[in-house]
Design a protein that fits this description.
This protein is α+β, with helices and mostly antiparallel strands. The chain folds into 2 domains: 169 residues, 3-Layer(aba) Sandwich (NADH Oxidase); 220 residues, NADH Oxidase (3-Layer(aba) Sandwich). The chain has 15 helices and 11 strands. Strands 1-4-5-3-2 form a 5-stranded antiparallel β-sheet, with helices on one face. α6 links the parallel β7 and β8. α3 runs antiparallel to α11, α4 packs antiparallel against α10 and α12 crosses α13. The longest helix is centred in the N-terminal third of the chain and has 20 residues. The N terminus and C terminus are likely disordered.
Length: 421
């Protein structure tokens, strides 16, 4: 393939992570293209920043190459922090599907830092090869049910047993640390930190343009691209859609910011964090390719494990545990820590300094680490609408594939798209 880049420095990572017996374990069969296609489609069900789906895949013999498609990067991302997190989640989905089919994956991570600045290049991030193994993976039945719920959750504390289970889900990734904020006073402090970070999206023209590039205002727009943020998934308050349309013009929003518009627009983020049972923070030691991909894999296992948990408290209606990623705080901190604030205005630099100081006071165990992702969890309703995914021929790095979604059964596809029409 002409667009592949050479990445000579690699690290082999063992993939045996102590999985329990799979809920439905398939008999291993000969590995060919038809066997690998379902695993690539499972990979596409992973979460990504603003549903930008920055991945491409190539089936090479009996292995799968995973590429980062920089053409789909978001301007707010810093050194591909969020895109590599998404790649890690996609890699883990692929591995889970393979284990459920009776194969043990082995992952080789490339180190392409010098090539990640190319805005349109496909850069190989990982190679996954497989050998027969009957261990399975208990998370495989949750691949099509994981989704983001942006609803208000119960403020009921999350069960200790559930938090222990989520810690176990990331425990096989020794570099990854999981921090919980559970005290209500600390959650309030975190809410205001995230609200202040969210202002950046409304105060920088590039980030404003990014937001409206990703928004899909109608179901037809969402179906046409099968990516981005379908407005129906955002849980907007009354007149939220009209507000977004009103500020879609940067000149209008920039003028309104002199009257405090960015502060007002960040308030829904503050309120959503307040309506949570706990706040989770996932940190890694370095912002390099291997650590970010590993953190993305750990985060995906946590999210899948969470998708099967429900409250035992009758007052909460036995609602399931939900998760909502919170990206503004990690990105704002990355702009300060990794870019030294050079893309921020002086007032934004001062705000970043204060946010960094207050964050370390709130979570001192994260002082010398990289915040990869923040998220809120709680018992609450599922989203009535799910984000769509691009068709197989759009994510396989080779032309001529027949049909859409060839890798999943019609029943599985229906579960993904049941609310999308």
């Amino acid at each position: 393939m002409n667009s592949r880049t050479n990445n000579p420095t690699t690290t082999a990572i063992p993939s045996g992570i102590g999985d329990t017996a799979a809920l439905s374990l398939a008999e291993p069969r000969s590995l060919d293209r038809s066997a690998l296609l379902p695993w690539t489609h499972a990979a596409t069900l992973a979460p990504s920043p603003d549903n930008n789906q920055p991945w491409r895949f190539e089936i090479t013999g009996q292995s799968i190459d995973v590429f980062l498609d920089r053409a789909r990067a978001l301007p707010s991302d810093v050194h591909s922090l969020f895109d590599l997190t998404a790649i890690g989640a996609a890699v883990e989905n692929c591995c889970i599907a393979a284990r459920a089919s009776g194969y043990r994956p082995t992952i080789t991570i490339d180190h392409p830092h010098s090539q990640l600045s190319a805005p349109s290049a496909l850069t190989r991030i990982a190679n996954i090869c497989f050998e027969a193994d009957a261990n399975g993976d208990a998370l495989s039945n949750l691949l099509t049910t994981r989704h983001t719920s942006r609803a208000a959750y119960s403020t009921q504390p999350v069960d200790d047993q559930h938090l222990r289970g989520l810690a176990e889900a990331v425990g096989s990734f020794p570099e990854v640390q999981l921090h919980w904020i559970r005290d209500r006073s600390a959650i309030r402090q975190c809410a205001w930190l995230i609200g202040r970070s969210d202002r950046l999206r409304f105060e920088r023209q590039a980030f404003h343009s990014e937001l409206f590039r990703q928004l899909r205002f109608t179901p037809a727009e969402a179906q046409a691209t099968r990516d981005g943020l379908d407005l129906r998934t955002l849980g907007l308050p009354p007149f939220g859609s009209l507000t977004l349309r009103a500020i879609s013009n940067w000149n209008v929003l920039n003028a309104m910011n002199f009257l405090g518009a960015s502060r007002m627009l960040s308030m829904p983020s503050v309120m959503s964090v307040l309506c949570s049972g706990a706040i989770g923070l996932l940190t890694i030691p370095r912002a390099d390719c291997e650590s970010l991909v590993g953190g993305g894999r750990a985060f995906q296992r946590l999210w899948l494990a969470l998708s099967g948990l429900a409250s035992s408290n009758p007052r909460s209606g036995n609602q399931k545990l939900q998760l909502h990623p919170l990206g503004s705080l990690p990105i704002f901190l990355a702009h300060w820590d990794q870019l030294h604030g050079r893309e921020l205005t002086p007032s934004q630099q001062r705000l970043a300094q204060r946010i960094k100081r207050d964050f370390i006071r709130l979570v001192p165990t994260a002082a010398d680490r990289v915040l990869q992702i923040a998220f809120r969890i709680g018992y609450g309703p599922a989203s009535p609408c799910r984000s769509l995914r691009r068709d197989a021929h759009d994510v396989l790095a080779e032309p001529g594939l027949p049909g859409a979604h060839p890798a999943l059964s019609p029943d599985a596809i229906a579960r993904i798209d049941e609310h999308a029409a």
